[in-house]
Amino acid sequence: MADIAKLESIASQVRRDIVRMVHAVNSGHPGGSLGCADYFTALYNEVMNYSTNFNMDGKGEDLFFLSNGHISPVWYSTLARAGFFEVRELSTFRKLNTRLQGHPTTHEGLPGVRVASGSLGQGLSVALGAAISKKYNNDSGIVYTLHGDGELQEGQIWEAAMFATHNKIDNIISTIDFNNRQIDGDVSDVMDLGNLRAKWESFGWTVTEMNGNDMKSVINGLTHAKSLTGKGKPVMIIMKTEMGAGVDFMMGSHKWHGVAPNDEQLVDALSQLPETLGDY
Amino acid sequence: MKKYTSTGNKDTRSGFGDGLLEAGKKNENVVALCADLTGSLKMDAFKNEFPDRFIQAGIAEANMIGLAAGLTIGGKIPFTGTFANFSTGRVYDQIRQSVAYSDKNVKIAASHAGLTLGEDGATHQILEDIGLMKMLPGMTVINPCDYNQTKAATIAVAEHHGPVYLRFGRPKVPVFMPENEKFEIGKAITLIEGSDVSIFATGHLVWEALKAAEELEAKGISAEVINIHTIKPLDDKAVIASVAKTKCVVTAEEHMRHGGLGDTIAQLLSRENPTPMEYVAVNDSFGESGTPEELMTKYGLDAANIVQSAEKVIKRK
């Protein structure tokens, strides 16, 4: 049984890391990062099987691909807190010569990252390739991916969606961060996704839903999704989240997609997020 | 002067197909993907021999490049196959982010490059692909000249770790390189030694350069012909050594003048040894429908133009 309280405390620390990281360099994407803190915490502290002794091929391990690379702060914090690299390295985020580039990359050799992302829409294709590679290697590991909802406006996502079903790729669990926010406003105003569940179902995916800002729901949702793998169909989780979740003034609009808090706002944000594992 | 004869006409894409099959037999990690052009890319033999290692990607090239990048995770050596236009311009950002920047061991096999694609016309005749690919950090760019060399290059790139752009073509062209000669990535091949002018040629233009050298010999001009099958990394030493002797250059390629082999050599020589140069290439223009031969003549990509360019550049010494 998952220790929900413990996971929630890790998520709180991850959220502290996120706001401190983007504040320190006055840039980065706090909104989506905060919204996905519970998902990342659950994935790396409860759900996935992996080694922190990072190896690119990840044979025998579960793999994770972040397709919406701009929410790098939440991933970096989660990786550091999980032991992939020293937590103090978070202080180098977006600074010259860092391994923690604005968007994730393999180029500087950061442990935990298997492909660069940032230019949207590419991660699902790469993850499917890795999933096929696992099948070739008789490797029972599962491939996880995360995508933004706005990212679904990219055509390549739907190329990949069609491919996955046709080829019965059933060792992948994708998740959509469905916060209905993108840079220019609400997704439903910029380019409406329509009936998202029906879209994925019509593409042949098994679709489930979960509340991405409720740890119990996330654990249950991911555990359920796992039970749906190996049945000849790819699995999609539509994860409802609130952009900026955990920091009241960052919630409720798209405005905190890519803006860093100022000094006062940082103090306000941190006052809402208990320190649990120690700040870097 | 050394003479070359053709042992018959064959398409370079068949060299790729046969090389892919052999690479697949040598290494079970070799896998192939194709975007609905299996016959055109001559990938049928591989598909039939290794049906489980052949992935039909459909008409979805962006996804195919991503799949290939992902397949490398776990140790596969993926070859993607489609026309050169859809292998580069259509998927530039996918190659840039998921392959080149991510340092993935993907082999991009691009057929029907250049004007010799023929009747389908300019929508399919990419003349910018060498430029696009050579600008990507870490990308190796190879444009072999005949069936034998394309086959050998395919086998070699499977054994090379790192992203590779392998460019070849549609028409049947003379086969003149030795059969089963080991392909060394980045090592230029001097086909004819000469002292008056260096002709650096790549792809289908290598044969034209050989014909041009014969015509030049009849005019009393000694041309050196060097086969630059690898545009990146360029064999700097071979270029510099040849130019030290001849003191003038003609480059020949089935590509846009901007961004092609000529540019690469000019950049090297402007740094190391500024030298008069003439380019045999397409001059800031799209192609059009026609037979390969008609197009190569109309756009000046033939032996006659190499001869004229050589005579011109010698006068500029």
What does this structure look like?
- The complex is a heterodimer of chains A (280) and B (317).
- In chain A, helix 1 crosses helix 4, helix 3 (37-47) packs parallel to helix 4 and helix 5 runs parallel beside helix 6.
- The mean pLDDT of chain A is 98.
- Chain A has helices at 4-25, 30-35, 37-47, 72-82, 123-136, 155-166, 187-191, 196-202, 215-227, 263-271; strands spanning 63-66, 143-148, 172-178, 181-182, 185-186, 206-211, 235-240.
- In chain A, strand 2, helix 6 (155-166) and strand 3 form a beta-alpha-beta unit.
- Chain A is α/β, with parallel strands linked by helices.
- Chain A is globular, with a radius of gyration of 17 Å.
- Chain A has one domain: Rossmann fold.
- With 317 residues, chain B is of the alpha/beta class.
- Chain B folds into two domains: 9-174, Rossmann fold, CATH 3.40.50.970; 189-315, Rossmann fold (3-Layer(aba) Sandwich), CATH 3.40.50.920.
- Chain B has a seven-stranded mixed β-sheet with strand order 3-2-4-5-7-6-12, with helices on both faces. A five-stranded mixed β-sheet of chain B has the order 9-11-10-13-14, sandwiched between helices.
- In chain B, helix 1 (12-26) packs parallel to helix 7, helix 3 (61-71) packs parallel to helix 5 and helix 8 (205-218) packs across helix 12 (303-315).
- The interface between A and B is medium-sized, with 39 and 31 residues.
